[in-house]
TrEMBL record:
<dbReference type="InterPro" id="IPR002078">
    <property type="entry name" value="Sigma_54_int"/>
</dbReference>
<keyword id="KW-0010">Activator</keyword>
<feature type="domain" description="Response regulatory">
    <location>
        <begin position="3"/>
        <end position="120"/>
    </location>
</feature>
<dbReference type="GO" id="GO:0005524">
    <property type="term" value="F:ATP binding"/>
</dbReference>
<dbReference type="InterPro" id="IPR002197">
    <property type="entry name" value="HTH_Fis"/>
</dbReference>
<keyword id="KW-0067">ATP-binding</keyword>
<dbReference type="InterPro" id="IPR058031">
    <property type="entry name" value="AAA_lid_NorR"/>
</dbReference>
<dbReference type="Pfam" id="PF02954">
    <property type="entry name" value="HTH_8"/>
</dbReference>
<dbReference type="InterPro" id="IPR025944">
    <property type="entry name" value="Sigma_54_int_dom_CS"/>
</dbReference>
<dbReference type="InterPro" id="IPR027417">
    <property type="entry name" value="P-loop_NTPase"/>
</dbReference>
<keyword id="KW-0597">Phosphoprotein</keyword>
<keyword id="KW-0804">Transcription</keyword>
<dbReference type="InterPro" id="IPR025662">
    <property type="entry name" value="Sigma_54_int_dom_ATP-bd_1"/>
</dbReference>
<protein>
    <submittedName>
        <fullName>Transcriptional regulatory protein ZraR</fullName>
    </submittedName>
</protein>
<feature type="modified residue" description="4-aspartylphosphate">
    <location>
        <position position="50"/>
    </location>
</feature>
<keyword id="KW-0238">DNA-binding</keyword>
<dbReference type="GO" id="GO:0000160">
    <property type="term" value="P:phosphorelay signal transduction system"/>
</dbReference>
Length: 450
């Protein structure tokens, strides 16, 4: 039962309201000092406050003072001011001071009930948002926001391997944050004062990639008018980040392997072997084992590159991160737009956590960027998201196999939802689902949810 504080000195009204407010655990106070004592003791989320309190029962000065003190102690508390029916002006003054709403005497029970319900709902929403904001501060690696246990483990691994010279391969779907891990590996390494040179192997045409990587001497080919050093040499002393390594053409794979084995390069058209000291980090969204089977990637190169493999899970496998990242991005982009969007309505958050996010964090970030420009606010609703939720991230949903499959799928989703809502707190998630903790563990094991 929710705790509600009623600050009212009129015994008749106290009685009437006590009866109307039966659904709450009601605390009463008849003056300012009692009201403050009750606030400290019971921490009510919502307060009903009569402005006419002794010693100024006919005026509003004591009531407004009480309002200010209540809000100074618990700014999140929603104070609903009770006023006489001719007292609109003072009601507005109270709202300007931070009261959530007002209600004029004589009260219509339904109106009061509705105002109370909305006040509690708003309090809940703000509390959820603020707890998410506190949690977000724990970014395990610079720029990486996560509460997912697998991601946290990856962050730990990065911290550990960053100081060594091992070659790191970051693997994961597009938009999962591979580049963030690659950059963190450099920034935490002893080479962080030197350059991080990145090259996207998929973005450069095959015929240019070789000279881009290895450089060339003057006259090496038509148009080679001056000696030019390549990316590998440019990274001397620092880190070389080879993005989309799965797209490296076979011809260059052999050349890269030689460099990794001997740590020397030859510029195109040159004969000198130039020693280069770089740490190599690479990333790909492709399944390299599959490419090896198809003969499109050299196995020996794979073994050279994959001394440490970081497998970044897709966003849909990190249920708690969707809510966390959505809030972090909303705060960031709303601020940059000068907009005061305060959070997501519960149904919008449910839509976000149900969506499959084929484009992972990048897609989520883009959705929230758009929302921060377009949403009316102050709370973001489902229509503001502009997500095609019927398509579940574009994947066509096949017809279910049987009732058991439908039930299991629904159960799995409900568990993921509960975990998202409680940021992975098993005890709270179990309570939300109405099962015991061991039962929830059992189900998570059954559905392979970590
Ligand atoms: N955990 C995270 N916390 C904060 N921002 C993130 C996180 N993961 C990804 N991002 C953001 O999402 C976007 C995509 O991340 P990134 O470029 O690292 O992904 P990627 O896996 O390298 O993608 P691609 O394979 O397409 O190159 C970036 O703007 C990045 O800052």
């Amino acid at each position: 039962m929710e705790t509600l504080l009623l600050v009212e000195d009129d015994v008749g009204l106290q009685k009437q309201l006590r009866w109307q407010l039966e659904g709450f655990s009601l605390q009463m106070a008849g003056c300012r000092s009692d009201a403050i004592a009750c606030l400290r003791r019971f921490e009510p989320k919502v307060v009903l406050l009569d402005l006419g309190l002794p010693p100024d029962a006919e005026g509003v000065s004591e009531g407004l003072k009480t309002l200010e003190e209540l809000l100074a102690l618990m700014p999140m508390t929603k104070v609903i001011v009770l006023t006489g029916n001719t007292d609109r002006e003072n009601a507005v003054r109270a709202v300007a001071l931070g009261a959530y709403d007002f209600c004029q005497k004589p009260f219509e029970p339904q109106v009061l009930a509705l105002i109370l319900e909305r006040a509690f709902a708003l309090h809940r929403l703000e509390a959820e948002n603020s707890s998410l904001k506190t949690l977000q501060t724990s970014t395990p690696l610079q720029g990486i926001v996560t509460h997912d246990p697998v991601m946290q483990q990856l962050c730990k691994t990065v911290k550990r391997v960053a100081t060594s010279e091992v070659t790191v391969l970051v693997n994961g779907e597009s938009g999962t944050g591979k580049e963030l891990f690659a950059r963190a590996t450099h920034h935490l390494s002893p080479r962080s004062e030197q350059r991080l040179v990145a090259i996207n192997c998929a973005a450069i045409p095959e015929n240019l990639l070789e000279s881009e990587l290895f450089g060339y001497e003057k006259g090496a080919f038509t148009g080679a008018s001056k000696q030019t050093i390549g990316r590998i040499e440019y990274a001397q002393g620092g880190t070389l980040f080879l993005d989309e390594i799965g797209d490296l053409p076979l011809s260059l794979q052999a050349k890269l392997l030689r460099f990794l084995q001997e740590r020397v390069i030859e510029r195109l058209g040159g004969r000198a072997e130039i020693p280069v000291n770089v740490r190599v980090v690479c990333a790909t969204h492709q399944n390299l084992a599959e490419l090896i089977k198809q003969g499109r990637f050299r196995e020996d190169l794979y073994y050279r590159l994959s001394e440490i493999v970081l497998k970044v899970p897709p966003l849909r496998m990190r249920p708690g991160d969707i809510a966390l990242l959505a809030n972090v991005f909303l705060e960031k982009y709303a601020a940059s737009q000068g907009r005061s969007l305060r959070g997501f309505k519960p149904e919008a958050m449910a839509t976000l956590t149900h969506y499959a996010w084929p484009g992972n964090v990048r897609e989520l970030e883009n959705v929230i960027k758009r929302v921060s420009v377009m949403a009316e606010g102050p709370y973001v609703g489902t229509p503001d998201l502009g997500l095609d939720v019927t398509e579940e991230g574009g994947a066509e949903t096949p017809a279910p196999l049987n009732l058991r499959q439908v039930r299991e799928e629904a159960e799995r989703k409900a568990i993921l939802d509960a975990m998202a809502q409680t940021e992975g707190n098993i005890l709270q998630a179990a309570a939300l689902l109405g099962v015991s903790r061991p039962t929830l563990y059992g189900l998570m094991h059954q559905y392979k949810i970590r």
